[in-house]
Each structure stands twice: as C-alpha cells, then as structure tokens.
C-alpha cells in the first residue's frame, strides 16, 4: 500500500501503524537496530526531529521503502511551480 505524506504530522501515526503491521514491538525494533526502546518511542512520537538516517534505519527494520515521485496534476496537487514550504 502507498501512503501520501504531505506534512510531518502525518508521519507519526503512520510509523506506529507500519510497525504494528510488521507485528513488531518497539522493543523488538530497538533490538534489531541496537538502540534503546526509548529511542524508538521518541522517533515514533516526533519523527520530524529524527535524522534522515535514523528514519531510514527504522523503516528498513520494518521492511518499508520510501518512494519519491513527482506530483501529478491529475491528483489535484499543487502545480510544480508552487513554492516549497521551508
């Protein structure tokens, strides 16, 4: 299944759901990655504060990939010339 993320707030519940879907506890993911349970909890609560490397390692432990693709005009998204919010 594909998930469209347009704002960092959308990521936290999705990360928890993906972990649950993989049938892994926070402790199990932590053990796989060699980090503490608290580190996984913090990443799930505030993924916008995590480094990209940590996020990628977390997703790798869940067997999840990130796919980047251009926005399509037909999907009702902003035009490509729209400014990117920083």
List the helices and strands and how they pair.
Layout: H1 11-21, H2 26-33, H3 37-45, H4 52-61
Helix pairs in contact: 2-3
Could you walk me through the main structural features you see in this protein, from its secondary elements to its overall organization?
The chain is mostly helical and 86 residues long. It has a domain at 9-65: 434 Repressor (Amino-terminal Domain), CATH 1.10.260.40. Helix content is 44%, strand content 0%. It has four helices and no strands. It is globular and about 40 Å long. The two termini are 28 Å apart. The model has no long low-confidence stretch (mean pLDDT 88).
Large-scale geometry: globular
Low-confidence stretches: none
Largest sheet geometry: none
What's the helix-strand series? Answer: HHHH
Q: Classify the helix fraction into a percent range.
A: 40-55%
CATH class of the domain at 9-65: Mainly Alpha
Count of alpha/pi helices: 4
CATH superfamily of the domain at 9-65: lambda repressor-like DNA-binding domains
Q: What is the CATH T-level topology of the domain at 9-65?
A: 434 Repressor (Amino-terminal Domain)
**DSSP, total strands:** 0
- Structural class based on helices, strands and sheet pairing: mainly alpha
What would CATH call the architecture of the domain at 9-65? Orthogonal Bundle
Report Rg: 15 Å
Strand content: under 5%
